[in-house]
Amino acid sequence: MAEETRRVPAFLSGPTTATAVLLPMRLYVGYWWLKLGLAKLGEGWLKTDQYPLNDLIKTLNPPGWFSVTFVDAANENTLLFQWLIVLAELLFGAMMLAGAVTRVSGIAIALMALIGFIAAGYDFNSWEIPMILISLTLAVAAAGRYLGVDAILKARMVKVPLF
Contact 80/45 with Cβ under 8 angstroms? Predict the structure, then answer.
């Protein structure tokens, strides 16, 4: 009986078992943000002659202080903000999906969702609040240590900041 328990792979037992529970959440969050970025690519957010961000800003109801800081800056540098939004959604979504540096990607995703929550005018019935909580949980738990790039790097003893 003792020999059978030794045959269990190391990544399926021990302290990483708790992070195995977070795998579906990590995959969902990564898929969600990657899908958002790909949808924006399909809508033409990176084209120099189209400015869909301006149309999106008109539908928002941000508080006054947010309007002065972020919205005015986005109106002045629309193409830059469009590129930053699309690249951040693609990059951090792919990182979370792959389980690569999940602490950094989890915090970045929580910040993007927080900005979306504030820009929408503190809409508590939106998807941003659960996304903030889930991504912060994934960041704190370093969810990439189970079936992710973080697990491969840890097994090879590679030092990654914020690992």
Answer: no
Tokens of 16: 């990483």
Integer angstrom CA distances of residue 37 from 46, 123, 157:
11, 22, 32
With tokens 């590679």, the residue in question is 158
The structure tokens 């914020």 sit at: 162
Instruction: Report helix angle 102-119 to 78-98, nearest 10.
Output: 140
DSSP H helix total and E strand total for the chain? 10, 0
Burial (CB count <10 Å: 0-12, 13-18, 19+), residue 126: middle
DSSP assignments along 121-160, one per residue: TS-TTSSHHHHHHHHHHHHHHTGGGSSSHHHHHHHTT---
Rounded distance, CA 146 to CA 161, Å?
18
14 pLDDT band, cuts 50/70/90, is very low
pTM: 0.82
Distance from C-alpha of 86 to C-alpha of 78, rounded to nearest angstrom:
12
pLDDT at 34 over 90: yes
Residue carrying structure tokens 């790039």: 149
Distance set, CA 51 to CA 33, 67, 77, 86, 87 (Å): 21, 18, 10, 13, 16
